Amino acid sequence: MVISLDQQQIQQVEEICANRGVRLTPQRRMVFQLICASKKASTAYELLEDLKKTEPQAKPPTVYRALDFLLEQGFIHRVESTNSFISCCIGNAHKHFSHLLICDVCGNVTEVQDDHLVSLLSKNAEQHGIHIANHVIESHGVCQTCCAKTKD
């Protein structure tokens, strides 16, 4: 299985890794490419099955270690409600908060950046004496494409 991924995106990830002094191993790269190739969030076992097509010896720890690395570096996000993973829409030049819009019919996930929403959350937390270190905002519903299909 050959995955076509924007070479510029891979180059950006490689440069970030080099600047941080971490390695984007072939397995990490492949898991990242698999995640980027799908609009849907991928589970670790789905990624393992896809990875086995090119690396038959791949085992669950290979995928879990790659996912841990990619999460730590901010190249992907975990979709908490489905325990699955999507690529980060900004290639992680810096840590950020995002809002995930999830279609419960087709499984597509869209990452949205909304500074106003983040500001409002921070303000609410501050009023209650909480410093936000991390948050997960996931909204589930039905996307326009799936809504249109049900009207047919």
What labels would you give this structure?
alpha+beta; 14% strand; 6 helices; two-stranded antiparallel sheet; 152 residues; three-stranded mixed beta sheet
Describe what this molecule looks like in 3D.
The chain has helices at 7-20, 26-36, 44-52, 60-73, 115-127, 144-151, and strands at residues 76-79, 84-87, 99-103, 109-112, 137-141. By secondary structure, it is an alpha+beta fold. The strands form 2 sheets. The protein has a 3-stranded mixed beta sheet with strand order 4-3-5, with no helix packed on it. The chain has a two-stranded antiparallel ribbon with strand order 1-2. Strand 3 (99-103) and strand 4 (109-112) form a beta hairpin.
The helix/strand series, from N terminus to C terminus, equals HHHHEEEEHEH
Structural class: alpha+beta
Which regions have little confidence, pLDDT < 50, spanning 5+ residues?
Answer: none
Number of helices: 6
Q: Radius of gyration from the CA trace? A: 17 Å
Instruction: Say how many strands there are.
Output: 5
- Please state how the strands of the largest beta sheet are arranged side by side: 4-3-5
Main sheet, how many strands, which sense, barrel?
3 strands, mixed
Envelope shape = globular
- Approximate helicity band: 40-55%
Distance, first to last CA: 34 Å
Q: In percent, how much strand structure appears in the residues?
A: 5-15%
Average pLDDT value? Answer: 88
